[in-house]
Amino acid sequence: MLRLRPLARAPLRRYFSASQMKDEYGAMSDAGDTFEHDGPFTLESGEVLPHAQLRYNTYGSLNPAGTNVLLVNHALTGNSDLASWWGSMLGPTLAFDTDKYFVVSANILGSCYGSTSPTSVDPSTGEPYGKSFPSVSVRDTVKLQGKLLESLGVTSLKSVVGGSFGGMQTLEYLFTGQEFGPETRSAIPIACGSHHTGWQIGISELQRQAIYADPDWAEGEGWNAKKGLEVARQIGMISYRTSQAYEEKFGRGVQGGKIYGSDAEWDVKSYLEYQGRKFLDRFDPITYVKLTEQMDSHDISRGRGEMKAVLNSVKVPTLIVGIDSDVLYPVHEQESLRDGIQGSELVVVNSDAGHDGFLLEQEEVSKNVIRFLESIE
From residue 245, how far is each of 299, 321, 362 by CA, in Å? Predict the structure, then answer.
């Protein structure tokens, strides 16, 4: 059983609504169906999960051939409920047209939204894995998703779509059919690169260090390192946006006229406190550490050869999407994908939202997804 002690919370000075700075996600839950892997699941590291499951959701109907399938992958703190984060793109006549396609969205292995994760019970101890949860790679998540797709009767994927962490999974699907799982006939990786760079690993590590600095991480089981998780989330919220967005929404706004020292009540401070505390309602410190480590494993060339040759080996239509203001996964990374994958196309979305533009600029992303999907069989 998880043993969480209550965290004392001072009242927030101000509530920030979506109209003041849009949130990336709607209400989050672990609702959906569950895929149970048959037998132990061996990870890329050589470690073995005695039991592995994925939570997933499906929309629309699978055709008799099992080929009208869109797989949509979520980002770091997302879930398999596609409607809660790309809802305006899901439904009849929309990008993920449920009259045409069988749309599948699967939770990441290691996530706290219904898949096997640090919160799951370790059969060898009868207690949650916690910090002992084994290291999972992006490739592990994709291989287990491949098993899920086969269990659903999927024989090939019309396209795989995803942004950020979801884009990393999407790039791995370019090698399914060759190595594992159903064949992928096209892909739309958004706001990501071919591998996690030192810049991105550094930002992940900074967030983890905030959690490690919480006394409960070193002295306790880690579940209650919540102040550290609050700070980690605040760091993330800075890296996901831009200077322009923060200036437009907050500028030098202040409450109560206090601008000096630790008593200063800047609007942006209140916003970041709100985001950090809100995050505690849906995530735990150990899962956050493990998932950021999984992102850091991203490298499509690992075990496949030199990156240029690996990218050149991709033969399926690929639409690459970048956000022009993204400082976390800058556009030059998407340009490198475009230059390496033969016949691929790059679309750069204009947005002041930074990295989160892939979630917030749904109209522009949707338009390009529809156009691309209509251009391929």
Answer: 30, 20, 17
